[in-house]
UniProtKB/TrEMBL annotation, chain A:
InterPro entries: Bact_solute-bind_prot3, Solute-binding_3/MltF_N. Residues 33-262 form the Solute-binding protein family 3/N-terminal domain. It holds the Pfam family SBP_bac_3. Keywords: Signal, Transport. Residues 1-22 form the signal peptide. The keyword ATP-binding does not apply. The lineage of its organism: Bacteria, Pseudomonadati, Pseudomonadota, Alphaproteobacteria, Rhodobacterales. Belongs to the bacterial solute-binding protein 3 family. GO terms for biological process: amino acid transport. This is Amino acid ABC transporter substrate-binding protein.
From TrEMBL, chain B:
This is ABC transporter permease subunit. Its main location: membrane. Gene3D superfamilies: MetI-like (1.10.3720.10). It comes from the Bacteria. It is found in: Cell inner membrane; Cell membrane. The chain crosses the membrane at residues 23-44, 96-119, 140-161, 199-227, 248-267, 287-309, 388-409. One of its GO terms (cellular component) is ATP-binding cassette (ABC) transporter complex. Keywords: Amino-acid transport, Cell membrane, Membrane, Transmembrane, Transmembrane helix, Transport. The keyword Nucleotide-binding does not apply. The keyword Membrane applies. One of its GO terms (biological process) is amino acid transport. NCBIfam families: HEQRo_perm_3TM.
Length: 338, 418
């Protein structure tokens, strides 16, 4: 009923609790499972399958971190959050890690006191319209009714885009992706706007995906990545380097298929350092030597995770594009393991 | 000789605070008060300390920043460049709008249903019973979402109105369009408008509206005078002059005259581009929220009205008819004044409930104060504590105002003891 009032109360209570606790990594180990915030359901990124097991691109990050810290990729409690509830959940300590296609912005990083640990998907805001509307550019949307998920950066980008182009629109604020789909499909709004990746994912679930198109304009930069609370640098380092380990593994050709073999030692010292047969990187993080190996073994390296959940072979069918390795002309780039 | 002896004077001892019944209750109250204050102080200081540790000192300065988001339903001018304050103001007005509309509709509906439930007609009485039980026993959130889903799924989209042979057409001589984005009705326009008057640079009020309102109120006051004069004549002569046409005249003729002077005409909605333009757009979200809150609260009001009427003993109406009062006058002069004493107090809490339930608006994307200040603003600025405190203060103020007005009304209708 008074959801936000309750949230506020939880925030206050949570802030009280959060400040009293020690390092997040100790809490996670003591609890025996990772509390990971995800979306309420975006196919390919985070959605429960028919058996109720969460799967997806963002979910894989949660599982990798759980495997690195706890040694078990299934030791994750997935907590669905909406655009509105996610930051409160993280700030209050209800979740340890938020992997919910969240855009890295200055104010979220600095003012809201979070630490983004990297970017796992370079995205931008797009528009989806029914083909029969006959629109070919977002600038033709003067007077259109636009469905938006409330409490996201897309809401602000949208206001800026229409203002900058001096065209009018009618915003219909919506709480979750599912409600937005319902309104969009019933024609209660002409356009649905959110991150282009989520549009592709949503479109893939439609009965007739070909009747809808994503307009060519991408009106914003949306670097999406996992984030943790500001101030707990040990925990931030673990999350950051787990993500980097997945990316580096792809770059170095370490896959879930050959990792067993490579873990016995290779001629490439960086692979050896990554997989813990050389050096003591794991110890520096406060974990054991096999941490990265376990993280990669859960769902494979970054490229495998991408292909399995949202790649061209899946119904969502997103090309690597900006999200290819830097060696292939993309932006995915990890600092070295040294 | 008599000796007066004073009763032995007891000096006050500390133990008397516990063992003497004269002081004990006071002691307990003081201790409880100290305990309560200590708890409150601990909660406040703990929150303040932890917020300071997080580097989030409470501050309301964020409300002056540009809000940067758009709001669809605006009763005052607003763009995304305006401050969060103004966005909160837009939300507040939306809350008040749906609360006022809801209270009016719920009262009308509730009174009708409450009276019909007492009907001698078995079928009517039973149907009303079903209505009451159905609506008050399902959570209002479900009614809101359900109403919205019906509006979205069953009504035609604006594009169904397009083409030479459209699937849907406008009603009432092409003046009203019912779509799944809301209802478009003709708007009232004035070709010789007096313009707006600016209130503290915060909002504009149309002078036309003020002029019409003033004429209407003057008309009603004159009509009251005519009634009073009729009463005097009736008391003196026993004949009551027929006054209804005079009263109707003094209210309607000046109003119509003012409308004509201002150049009153209607602006009709028409399909342009993606949507209808022109006319007044009653959005789906407003209709769903208004309708659901009204029918839900009406079920409670119906029960209150029924209880109020039944609390007046049958002897009263029998006595009234024995005096020769018509049934309408019996209701107006005998039953209702007594029933209102019972009806008003629980009615206050229903109005308060309706207003507070309007914060469920976000379920259908209606941008009320919870949606703007407690939703988007809170989320974009990350100022949870400040936003929620402000929000609670605003709801408290609204509720206390409603209570104050209704209590004043209650005092004016309550039984005067002689």
């Amino acid at each position: 009923m008074k959801k936000s009032v309750i949230l506020g109360a939880i925030t206050v209570a949570g802030l009280a609790a959060g400040a009293a606790t020690a390092g997040t990594v100790d809490d996670v180990k003591a609890r025996g499972k990772l509390n990971c915030g995800v979306t309420t359901g975006v196919p390919g990124f985070a959605a429960p399958d028919a058996n109720g097991n969460w799967a997806g691109f963002d979910v894989a990050v949660c599982r990798a971190v759980a495997a690195a810290v706890l040694g078990d990729g299934t030791a994750v409690e997935f907590i669905p959050t909406t655009g509105k509830t996610r930051f409160t959940a993280l700030a209050s300590g209800e979740i340890d890690l938020l992997a919910r296609n969240t855009t890295w912005t200055f104010s979220r990083d600095v003012d809201l006191k979070f630490d983004f640990v990297g970017v796992n998907y370079y995205d931008g805001q797009g528009f989806m319209v029914p083909v029969e509307l006959g629109v070919s550019s977002a600038k033709e949307l003067d007077g259109a009714t636009v469905c938006i998920q409330t409490g996201t950066t897309t809401e602000l980008n949208l206001a800026d885009f229409f203002r900058a182009n001096n065209i009018s629109y009618e915003p219909v604020p919506i709480e979750t992706n599912a409600e937005a789909q319902q309104q969009y499909l019933a024609g209660a709004c002409d356009v649905y706007t959110t991150d282009a990746s989520a549009l592709a994912a949503t479109r893939a679930t439609f009965e007739a995906p070909d009747a809808h198109m994503v307009l060519p304009e991408i009106i914003s930069k949306e670097p999406l990545g996992p984030l943790v609370r500001h101030g707990d640098n040990e925990w931030g380092d673990i999350a950051r380097w787990t993500l980097n380990a997945l990316i580096t593994a792809e770059e170095l050709g370490v896959t879930s298929a050959n990792i067993g073999e490579m873990a016995n030692g290779t001629n490439n010292p960086e692979i050896n350092r990554l997989l813990g047969t050389e050096g003591n990187l794991g110890e520096m993080l406060g974990l054991d030597a096999d941490w990265a190996k376990r993280a990669i073994m859960v769902e494979g390296n970054y490229g495998e995770i991408f292909e399995k959940n949202i790649g061209l072979s899946t119904p969502i069918g997103i090309a690597r594009g900006l999200n290819a390795q830097w060696t292939d002309g993309g932006l995915i780039y990890s600092p070295p393991f040294r | 000789m008599t000796t007066l002896t004073d009763p032995p004077r007891e000096s006050f001892r500390l133990s008397m605070l516990i063992y003497d019944t004269r002081y004990r209750s006071l002691t307990i109250q003081v201790v409880a008060l100290i305990g309560f204050m200590a708890l409150a102080a601990w909660l406040v200081s703990n929150t303040a300390n932890n917020l300071a540790d997080l580097g989030k000192e409470p501050s309301f300065a964020f409300l002056n920043e540009p809000a940067s988001y758009d709001i669809n339903q605006r009763l005052i001018e607003y763009t995304s460049r305006d401050s969060h304050w103004r966005a909160a103001g837009v939300g507040l007005l939306n809350t008040l709008l749906v609360a006022v509309l809801g209270c009016i509709t719920a009262t009308i509906l509730g009174v009708v249903i409450g009276v019909l439930r007492l009907s001698n007609n078995w079928l009517v009485a039973k149907i009303m019973t079903v209505y009451v039980e159905m609506f008050r026993n399902v959570p209002v959130l479900l009614w809101i979402v359900f109403t919205m889903a019906i509006l979205i799924e069953t009504l035609p989209a604006p594009r169904a109105f397009r083409g030479d042979n459209p699937e849907a057409s406008m009603l009432l001589g092409d003046s009203v369009a019912v779509t799944n984005r809301g209802v478009y009705i003709p708007e009232i326009l004035f070709s010789r408008s007096l313009g707006n008057v600016d209130f503290f640079g915060f909002f504009n009020v149309s002078l036309d509206l003020i002029a019409i309102g003033a004429v209407l109120i003057a008309g009603i006051l004159i009509s009251k005078l005519i009634t009073r004069r009729a009463n005097v004549i009736q008391a003196a002569t026993g004949d009551r002059p027929v006054t209804w046409y005079k009263r109707l005249g003094v209210i309607c003729i000046p109003t119509l005259l003012v409308l004509w002077i201002l150049g009153y005409h209607l602006g009709y909605p028409e399909l342009k581009g993606f949507n209808f333009s022109g006319g007044t757009h009653l959005r789906n979200s407003l209709i769903a929220l208004w309708l659901a809150l009204s029918v839900y609260t009406a079920a409670f009001i119906a029960e209150i009205v029924r209880a109020g009427i039944m609390s007046v003993s049958k002897g009263q109406s029998e006595a009234a008819s024995a005096l020769g009062l018509s049934s309408r006058r019996t209701m107006n002069l005998v039953i209702l004044p007594q029933a209102l004493r019972v009806i008003i107090p629980p009615m206050i809490s229903n109005y308060l409930n309706l207003t507070k339930n309007s914060s469920l608006a976000i379920a259908v994307g209606y941008m009320d104060i919870t949606g703007t200040l407690g939703g988007i603003t809170m989320n974009q600025t990350g100022r949870e504590l400040e936003s929620i405190l402000l929000l609670m203060l605003i709801y408290l103020t609204i509720s206390l105002s409603i209570s104050a007005v209704m209590n004043w009304y209650n005092n004016s209708v309550k039984l005067v003891e002689r």
